[in-house]
Amino acid sequence: MKFGVIRFPGTCDEVDALYAARRVGDAELLWHGERDLKGVDAIVVPGGFSYGDYLRAGAIARFSPVMESVISFVEDGGLVLGICNGFQVLCEAKLLPGALLPNTNLRFTFRQVDLDVIHRHTAFTSACAAGTPLSIPAEHSWGRYYADEATLAGMEGNGQVVLRYAAGQNFNGSTADIAGVSNERGNVFGLMPHPEHAVDELTGSTDGLCIFASMRTAVESARV
Amino acid sequence: MAGPNRVRARVLIRPKAGILDPQGEAVKRALPALGFAGVANVHVGRLVELDVEDPTQLEPMCEKLLANPLVEDYEIVLAGD
Q: Mind telling me the catalytic residues of A?
């Protein structure tokens, strides 16, 4: 099982994502200017500041050559995980519903947050422990998830609201405490907190690993 | 100058009505402290200024790239308007 991790100009968490993915499988980097996805089984769009966040976070990265291939990959049912700026890129690409807006506190905020896993049947959360929240760091200034009421109602009905900030921990002002969402088909998932920064006891939590492990399970069970 | 066959355009982009605009709120709170009273409805957005040969392309540019219509309104102003 091989992950591909995309590197845009301005991406800064791609190596961390690569190391996290390598704890559960193989992984290699994919350059934004290439359309070739190198036969990877799943894709991670990592965190950082692609294209300097010019115009809006993710707005320019969304039109890079690699994203044309990512869109086809998604149409074919491939798994795509977007973390932080990667989540913003996937929303801009309309692979995920909604948009990310500046935090209500107008500050870059870096803190460990608890995330309630609302749905554990997904390709991205099946390996997460039941009943306990995930402790994962969040590190962003544009993380306020927004979708209009009709979109939200549809998402709730389809089980697309996968992660929520635990009570009292929604520091960025996200609508309905939403921290992570999937598309309707369930093969694209984005979240603002960084699971790749919670894969080793050295940094205080290994709760992020279950996201990568779930993807491995989904890819391998689809092969059978 | 916009140059030959081009017209200067300004695209004004602002948060959609009803969506919390924390930057606008912060500016609104700062103004009374500086002695400017009676200010309401403060919104902070972006200005994109560009010279275009074909002004009819401005709207698709806004829809596709310059604005995010999910969360932003835009207004196109052509020089001379």
A: 84, 194, 196
Which residues of A lie inside 8 Å of B (Cβ-Cβ)? 55-56, 59-60, 63, 92, 98-99, 101-106, 144, 146-148, 173
Q: How far is CA B38 from CA B27, B41, B44, in A?
A: 13, 10, 18
Q: What is the pLDDT of residues A37-72, one digit of tens each?
A: 999 999 999 999 999 999 999 999 999 999 999 999
List chain A residues with CB under 8 Å of B26: 106
Instruction: Point out the residue among A56, A106, A144 whose CB comes nearest to the CB of B23.
Output: A106
What is the DSSP secondary structure assignment for residue B57, as one 8-state letter?
G
Find all residues with CB under 8 Å of A95, minimum gap 6, and list them: A70, A71, A74, A80, A183, A188
Beta-strand ranges (E) seen in chain A are 2-7, 26-31, 42-45, 79-83, 99-101, 109-117, 134-140, 144-146, 161-165, 178-182, 188-191
* CB neighbour class for A27 (10 Å; exposed up to 12, middle 13-18, buried from 19): buried
State the pTM of this model. Answer: 0.95
Measured between CA atoms, the residue of chain A closest to residue B69 is: A99
Mean pLDDT, range A87-112, rounded to an integer: 97
Confirm if A47 and A85 have CB atoms less than 8 A apart.
yes
pLDDT of residue A208: 98
Contact B22 A105 (CB under 8 A): yes
What does the DSSP assignment read for A109-136?
A: EEEEEEEEES-SSSTTTTTSPTTS-EEE
Residues of A in contact with B20 (CB under 8 A): 101, 104, 144, 173
Measured torsion, CA atoms of residues A128, A131, A132, A136, in degrees rounded to the nearest 10:
40
Please tell me which of the candidates A56, A60, A146 has its beta carbon nearest to residue B19: A146
Residues of B in contact with A56 (CB under 8 A): 68
Going by the DSSP 8-state scheme, the letter that residue A11 receives in this structure is B
